[in-house]
Design goal:
Layout lengths: L1 H39 L4 E7 L5 H20 L8 E5 L2 H7 L6 E3 L2 H14 L5 E7 L2 E4 L2 E4 L8 H8 L6 E6 L8 H4 L4 E5 L12 H10 L18 H18 L9 E3 L34 H9 L32
Parallel strand pairs: 1-2, 1-4, 2-3, 4-7, 7-8
Antiparallel strand pairs: 5-6, 8-9
């Protein structure tokens, strides 16, 4: 009896293995497609741009110019209709400057920021998308990161509480202010994409990210443009994040300054940011060591000239982020419009 049942048992086990082998890839593909559809098939994309106190005339001018650029590119690249864009300016001077481009521009305070998030939570539909961009200054206060606005400042816990009721298919929080890395953990949740200018460390100097982001979107970047950087055949939020960070790094290197901001991306909901951009950053050129003593023979000059003329081979493109457990996966499925050339 046992001998006769053995072939049947082997046949059943083989069938199970075959079904598992087929179902495994299909299930993974279905799960990946579901993530892609969830990000790409948004019915309506809305955006809140909130700017804190500029602090001085130079930063007011820079921040105003960045928001002016974002007003235009939010429509052409990010797909946000003008009536779905909310702007909270840093002060009245900035508000007056922005109103010709966007008449419904308010002033950013803790109250107006919380109100804007509350109104969005009430009116967003499950199939909608909601983006929040923050620009400004912050300062540390104990374990808090205080975002500087007119009146009472707002910290990461208060902001996360105000944003807790946001429920929609695509949620993007792009926090470009100093000390923004501390905002990831309280703000994180499954399905939410959070990008910060800094890591959770004392990186509290003024950041370059908001200006690099605006420049990449409008095509005025010093070194980087918005294109399919990860090579997956689409233009996505991940490409925008990577391009912005390549631009930030290039700007610091151009002035030979130690980089004081290290961006983080969290889109797997674990509350821990990752420097997804690191493998995509250009290799920093090595400095030539000056030789002491007598000059070398002129016979080596031609070889040196040839070496300087030869461009370094481009680094191999990193592998695509294909696991939904890794930061950067969900961002690949938030689709953007191709910028006009």
């Amino acid at each position: 009896m046992r001998v006769r049942s053995l072939p049947l048992l082997v046949l059943l086990l083989g069938s199970c293995v075959a079904v598992s082998a087929i179902a495994g890839p299909r299930a993974a593909a279905a799960e990946r497609a579901a993530d892609g559809d969830a990000a790409a098939a948004v019915a309506n994309r809305r955006m809140l741009i909130c700017c804190g106190l500029p602090g001085d005339d130079r930063h007011r001018e820079q921040m105003t110019a960045a928001i002016e650029s974002l007003i235009t590119t939010s429509q052409t690249v990010l797909g946000v209709p003008p009536d779905q864009l909310t702007i909270l300016a840093g002060d009245e001077v900035m508000q007056t400057a922005l109103q010709p481009l966007h008449s419904a521009t308010g002033i950013c305070t803790r109250e107006t920021l919380e109100t804007a998030l509350a109104e969005a939570a009430k009116t967003l539909k499950p199939s909608d998308a909601y983006w929040v961009m923050m620009i400004g200054h912050s300062h540390p206060y104990g374990v808090e990161s205080q975002f500087n606005v007119s009146g009472r400042d707002i910290n990461q816990s208060q902001f996360a509480q105000a944003a807790a009721a946001i429920e929609c298919r695509e949620q993007v929080f792009w926090l470009t202010q100093p000390l923004s890395g501390f905002w990831i953990k309280p703000l994180a949740r499954p399905g939410r994409i959070i990008m910060t200018a800094t890591e959770a460390d004392l990186e509290f100097t003024a950041t370059e990210m908001p200006y690099a982001l605006a420049a990449v979107l409008d095509g005025s970047g010093d070194t980087e443009s918005l294109h399919d950087i990860d090579g997956d055949g689409t233009l996505s939020l991940l490409d925008l994040y990577l391009a912005t960070n390549i631009e930030v790094t290039a700007r610091f290197r151009a002035i030979d300054r130690l980089q004081t901001e290290h961006a983080q991306l969290d889109d797997n909901g674990d509350g821990r940011g990752s420097e997804v951009q690191q493998p995509y950053l250009p290799v920093e050129p090595e400095e030539d060591e000056e030789e002491d003593g007598q000059e070398e023979g002129k016979e080596d000059e031609s070889d040196a000239d040839d070496a300087q003329a030869a461009e370094p081979a481009p680094a191999p493109k990193p592998a695509l982020i294909q696991s939904h457990n890794l930061d950067g996966f969900r961002s690949r499925y938030v689709m953007l419009e191709t910028p006009a050339t």
